[in-house]
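Morning!

This is the sequence you dropped in the shared folder:
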Amino acid sequence: MAGKVALFGASGVIGQSVANALKAEGRPYRVVGRSRGSLESEFGADPLAEVVTWNPDDPASVREAARGVDTLIYMVGVNYWQFHLHPQLMRKTLDGAIAEGVKHVVLIGTVYPYGLPRTTPVRDDHPREPNSFKGRMRKEQEDLLLAEHAAGRIQATILRLPDFYGPHVERSFLHRAFVAALAGKRAQLIGPIDPPHEFIFVPDVGPIVLKLMDEPRAYGRSWNLAGAGVTTQREMIAEAYRQLGRPMKLSTMGKGMVRFIGLFDPFMRELVEMHYLLTTPVLMDDSELRHLLGDVPKTPYAEGIRQTLAAMKEPRTATVSPAPAATGRPRPTP
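The structure's back. Tokens below.
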């Protein structure tokens, strides 16, 4: 089992999932982010959580955030229109982590570096041939990490996630459609919505990350984590309307409309180059991860949608609640 664990980029939904998994096992952890107020709001009620702020542009601040850490889980996000920062932030984090003697780094990655899929499904050893700027920046980020592993300065591994959804996951292809379904309104999706797709339920991710970081054989390469099966955007939204007992109402916008809206919305503008993921989806084969870890539980889509809708009906509360007194280790889903 790893020693002190630090979650860099803890405020995102994946960070919260990993924190919940650590809390469930009674394991202390450090949450690292820019805003103390945000971190305190999300994790301050958990006595297992240590709140640390950092400024990645200040080497001393990076070292302080990494001090005393055995395993660093890297989930640092950037605005969708600032992907050029990914390699820069990784370089600064690695320099500080290596200087402080951090042993392990787990990067939560994406399918972007694969580019257009050569095979379906995509195995872990699929060539990384990004066809987008975002994919190139993510690959450069990965290359920096893997180079430090190859040089023996740190142990590194990458866990690749597909699109994700779940309670309080607002940056999802599905979120606005779920909101519309709850309101009995027409859901608007970015099309096409019928090609095969996969999603991971965010609460499933944390326990898998913990199992991966504790497995010595995991380091030195990347691993795919596939969704809970192949589905489509249409099927996911149809299930939401079905559970709500309402007839499904849908409209879709194509790439041209996304490009037009992008004239006024920077996020939509940046989405245009990633539209290929809807027309030529990257469906992942995670058989090697399952062979490594054994059990890789995934919430079925119908149950994940049920939990997501239930959470959306309730007022938002702190994501990490106080942990019960734990005596040791007693175990989802971007």
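Headline: Residues 317-334 have pLDDT under 50 and may be disordered.

More detail when I'm at my desk.
O.
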